[in-house]
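Regression test attached.
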Amino acid sequence: MRKFQFLAPFFILALCFTATAYSAAVTDLFLGSKVQHSYRAYPLEVDKVTASMIAAENKVDVLITFEALLKDGRATPVTATFLQNIPVIETVAVNSKNYLILSLSPIEAQYMLLMQRQTYKVILRPEGDNAIFQIEVVK
Amino acid sequence: MSKKCFLLLLLPAILIIPGIINSQSTLELKPYNLVVQGWAPLAILRNPEQVDILIVREKNGEDSVYTLFQDVKATKAKQNGQDSTITLLLPQRTITELNTLQATLNKKTDAFVMIVRNNKDDKVFPLETSTISRLFQ
């Protein structure tokens, strides 16, 4: 038995490595471990083309088109950049539907649910561009 | 008392006490099966997670969104044909609100969403209702 004693540290190291790898694999399965503290993971349905050009860790802007009431009472379609520089946690395809899992603050999530009932479009930002612009509403 | 005897007594205490504490903290929570037509809103629930539930309601002719529940334990969603079932662990007193949620879901599935929280984030705070007019004020 004594002649194998020199293997003990290697055995312990291998055990530690396996435990770490297992823990990392299990953690990776849970969305709750990927979302940043005080943020929420929000599933937003997108078309196939949009889903194909966006990947996890990309950043996106969300544009909304809706009917706005003018002062004279007329309704007109307007488009607004509703959210800017939103991190994508991951992309999911379920039952031939594609989703982006966005990282939103709780209040942004509320507005997202409200706005996704209108026409919306998700656009990809270039890598490294984190600037937030004041973009006027288009009508 | 010998050292061995003390350790033998200590061991069951270590094993049992956390179980008692845990069972007391979940004592008031009841499982509630929420049935949702279609799969879409539950797409992200591939594992049990801590979630917030957001709901849309019409108020004074305008859609408004508010957070119905915060930090709720939800099981992995199960799909049965066109319906999806999810079990939520909630306090008994919220069952009325849940019945309202179920009634809303039966009419319109796009009227709610479950959003996943960070698993170490258990902060619950009041959130104001969101409306389009408030956003563009």
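Expected vs. actual: identical. The mean pLDDT of chain B is 78.
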